[in-house]
Automatic annotation (TrEMBL):
SMART domains: OLF (SM00284). This is Si:ch211-173a9.6. Keywords: Secreted, Signal. The keyword Secreted applies. Pfam families: OLF. Residues 126-385 form the Olfactomedin-like domain. The gene is LOC115406635. The lineage of its organism: Eukaryota, Metazoa, Chordata, Craniata, Vertebrata.
Amino acid sequence: PLFLKNCLVLVLLEIHQSGPLKMLDCNVTTSVGESGQCVCEVFLPDTSFPADRVESVQEDSKDFSLFPPQIQNMTSTVNLLESYDKSNLELIRKSFAELQEKLEEYIGETATREIITPCFFLSSGNCNHTGILSISKPKVVQVNGDLSSTYVYGCWGKDSKPDPGYESMYFYGGYSSTNYGQYYYLYSDYEKLILRSYFKRYSLSYDEGNNHIVHGNAMYYQAYSPLRMGKVNLTSLQLEYRVITEASERFSYSFINDQHLDFAADEKGLWVIYASEQSNGKLIVGKINENFLDIEERHTTSVYKVHATNAFMACGVLYVTRSVDLTTDEIFYAYDTQTSEEKNLNVPFQKFRDQYSYLDYNPTDQKLYMYNSGYYVSYDVRFNKE
């Protein structure tokens, strides 16, 4: 190839405001690339158009488009802060610190989602995983439907096997004592739950404890005298009972009394968790036959019930929690009912308040529902991909 060592290049730049075309000097170097092609480099003076910098800005702008509107709208807050005088300097510093903290938190959460989302958020009913990986931060929905600070015990959540047309239904029951319940409420959807606008209110006979659950348009609950399972059809309000002869009233969870029968539901069906004298207070999980309200299989674990704060089922696995400190609990134990395999775990999660009376998993949305000292709280559950 023929190379030009030095040359004068005429670069035409159209300036829209001024109109005339300008000719600028530049340097040109030539060389041969690795594959034998001719490489020509043009060096323009600083007054020329900064194409390389424009390209860099264009690439960076793509990243900024990923930020949510609340981050983009920070400019309005900054403009407001600029109007403050020196007497508000401390407020300005505090506001900037809060903005910086929000930005860093968002960036961190974005990075976490990019790693976790493809692997660990599974479709409802999917059990192709090896167990729970982590629990999200708590989402505090609001105070209970009775607006009562004394109703520190209770339950809330969704139907874990809803009838058609009731997929969005929520239930709630709150009370000041574990010895008996007050009323239970049904809400057609989340908005009605927030507005406390129920479509049905009912009470239960011989109601005790608060680890109730709604499954298949029926509420399952603990009844007393004698200790037994109770079931109420939410349409007809017809009641059924079944005594669990080996279940003991001696053992309850560490946070609360009278929690002898803990009902749970997951992708595999309906369960009840309890302890007996024969098991020396160790947790037993029983699979419930919904048609006959009877226990069709039992599994005894190695966990002493009074050391646990609560328990729930997910994909046929029993998960047991315990308190770490005033703000943290952890899932410390798992029992697989299909393989009888036991595992020690360390899956921490934050608590809104120290003690809670209700914790249940719902397979329809893969969330944990907690009743925490009178407040509705929920968590997202992330699973290890198989």
